[in-house]
Specification:
mainly alpha, 3 helices, flat, 2 domains, two-stranded antiparallel ribbon
């Protein structure tokens, strides 16, 4: 038996816990591929890695991290 993902534990999430995680990975890769096809500068990192991007004064990341703090201090 596998442990539930964070998404399975969230009451507001619509993900069906009976579906394998592979389904979500497929959707994510399909989205990433399509964004690149449309000309987006889509960047990501390996799972569980700190990740942030700075473009001029804009700093964006999927979640707050030390990487975002470092970039913010650098920007100031």
């Amino acid at each position: 038996m596998t442990s539930p993902s964070k998404c399975d534990l969230c009451s507001s999430c619509k993900q069906d816990p009976s579906k394998p995680r592979v389904y979500w990975d497929f959707l994510w890769l399909t989205l990433a591929r399509r964004l690149r096809e449309l000309g987006s500068m889509f960047e990501d990192a390996d799972n569980w890695q700190a990740f942030a991007i700075r473009n001029g004064q804009l700093i964006t990341a999927p979640q707050p991290s030390a990487k975002v703090a470092e970039m913010l201090i650098e920007a100031l």
